[in-house]
Design goal:
Blueprint (H helix, E strand, L loop, with lengths): L2 H14 L3 E5 L2 H4 L19 H4 L2 H6 L1 H17 L4 H12 L2 E5 L5 H4 L6 E2 L8 E2 L33 E2 L11 H13 L2 E5 L11 H7 L3 E5 L12 E3 L3 H9 L13 E2 L6
Parallel strand pairs: 1-2, 1-6, 2-3, 6-7, 7-8
Antiparallel strand pairs: 4-5, 8-9
Helix pairs in contact: 6-10, 8-9
Bound molecules: ligand BV8 and zinc ion.
Length: 269
């Protein structure tokens, strides 16, 4: 099937879907300038492994290093803007049943106008006390270049405990309500768009398989193949900002920016 025909076939499937669930990963934010979790790293934090820093052990060992890393990420996200893919999802959800589950901790979907976003791994700006769990108010966020390598986290006004980022670290359970909602949505959708995830992190990476068992069509949007690609009905080798407006009828059309690259399991792209 020629790429353009293949793209039209996928777009037709998306148009006919009764209930779409979108599962997002770090690649959804990449075109907004937010580094992915496992992509190439540069700058101040190049020598740190996010998988090692996003853990309770790293926090216990050096809270000032971990807090500075998250403050740097908050600074990057504050300066980032939602892209055409974020906006296409928000627009589509106003017109048809489309729900959004993300592994990301940024607020780019909300800033694009999406509501009811399910954050499986918590939220970067939902700081809370590490001891009494009370939410902590606004944190002063400097420019990314002004974030030091280490910075003592703020203290809880109620109990004096350290304030931690409101995210789920490796080894911590996902928020029960969020994961329950995500599983319900995955079981109820008839098409799942899996956008910008390497499919390495569990239990989030199990959601597409749950949807498939329930009979959903799986469409991946990712320039690279990943752990979930063999399970996909279709893989669009495109970026989120290219593919989502084209698939969902947003403001930009992928074919305007070059031919869509498609991969069908078993068919060489
Ligand atoms: C838990 C918040 C149990 C922090 C994150 C099996 C079952 C259960 C658990 C496990 C298991 N096996 C292993 C585990 C443990 C672990 C795990 O999965 N480890 C992995 C590394 C093997 N899981 C956990 O610890 C989870 N907890 O299971 O608890 C439990 C139960 C009871 C009691 C105690 C414990 C918690 C996992 C959550 C970790 N926190 N984030 C923070 O952000 O700092 S996960 C982190 O990875 C981010 O949230 C990120 O979103 C997520 C997933 O990664 P991806 O999104 O896929 O990002 P990645 O960089 O890998 O890939 C980007 C993709 O985008 C690439 O494919 C690229 O090609 C593509 N791309 C690039 N540019 C674009 C693009 N795509 C489209 N457009 C573009 N422009
Ligand atoms: Zn406290």
């Amino acid at each position: 099937m020629a790429p353009a025909e293949g793209f039209e076939a996928i777009r037709g499937r998306v148009a006919k879907a009764a209930r779409i669930l979108v599962l997002g990963g770090a690649g959804m934010s990449a075109e907004s300038g937010v580094p992915t979790f496992r992509g190439a790293r540069d700058g101040l934090w190049a020598r740190f492994d996010p998988g090692a820093l996003a853990t309770p052990e790293a926090w216990a060992a050096d809270p000032a290093l971990v807090w500075a890393w998250y403050l740097w990420r908050m600074a990057l996200v504050r300066r980032a803007c939602p892209h055409a893919g974020h906006r296409a999802l928000a627009e589509a959800a106003r017109l048809r049943p489309l729900e959004l589950v993300t592994q990301n901790v940024d607020d780019l979907h909300e800033r694009a106008g999406s509501t009811g976003v399910v954050h499986l791994h918590g939220e970067l700006f939902a700081h809370r006390c590490a001891d009494c769990a009370r939410p902590h108010a606004e944190v002063a966020i400097p420019a990314p270049g002004a974030v030091p390598q280490r910075l003592e986290p703020p203290r809880c006004a109620h109990c004096g405990g350290r304030v931690r980022p409101g995210v789920v670290w490796f080894g911590e359970p996902l928020p029960e309500a969020a994961f329950d909602a995500a599983r319900r949505m995955a079981a109820a959708c008839d098409l799942m768009l899996v956008v910008g995830t390497s499919g390495l992190v569990q239990p989030a990476a199990g959601l597409p398989l749950l949807a498939r068992r329930a009979g959903a069509c799986l469409v991946e949007v990712n320039p690279e193949p990943g752990g979930l690609s063999p399970h996909m009905d279709f893989s669009l080798r495109m970026t989120a900002a290219e593919a989502l407006p084209a698939l969902l009828g947003g403001t930009r059309d992928a074919r305007a920016s070059g031919r869509p690259r498609l991969a069908f399991p078993g068919v060489a792209p």
